[in-house]
Amino acid sequence: MSLYALLFYVLGAVILAATAMALTRRTLMHGVIYLVNAFVATGLLFYLLGAPLLAAFEVIIYAGAIMVLFLFIVMFMQPKDAAHEGLSPQQWIFPAVLAVSIVISGAALILSGPGAGKPMAMAMAAPRELGRFVYDRYWLAVEVVSFLLFIGLAGAYYLGRDARHEAPEKPRPAEVDGTASEAPDAEADAQPGAEPDAKKEETR
Description:
Elements (H helix, E strand, L loop, with lengths): L2 H22 L3 H21 L3 H26 L15 H19 L15 H11 L1 H28 L6 H5 L1 H11 L7 H7 L1
């Protein structure tokens, strides 16, 4: 096995392990840190496959900007659900079946592809060639992915809006102390035609 193939499998194992650790952590901070490691390993894998521009985008944008922003949000906002209970064993059944089906489908596509059985070799793709290849042949797939990202953004906003509407309102201090309930009783005890003491003194 060549050094290129060894690095490829090592980076692939790191990506799978870091992603699995990010999904199974109970603390949000730990999950974000593991996900940053997965993004960095993905950038190195892109560079190894001959796409330095994608590698730079992966490290700078995802690991360097988006995930660092998530870290700052977790550290400063300290959400109450930062430590969640995790999924029950019954809830893991469908994600496990879906993950196994995706792995089997990907392995079948790789083994039946035109490059099956050929040794991996180092290659390099220039940014101009990569852009033309993606947006000339796979422009529809790029548009579909962008539309899916927009749907995810809209769904996150909708779920967050529902959570804000369903949150119970905190009682006001006057209602807690009982002063708000005493005020109507005092007004009810007063006579309808009675005048304040100051007005009575003026009439005298």
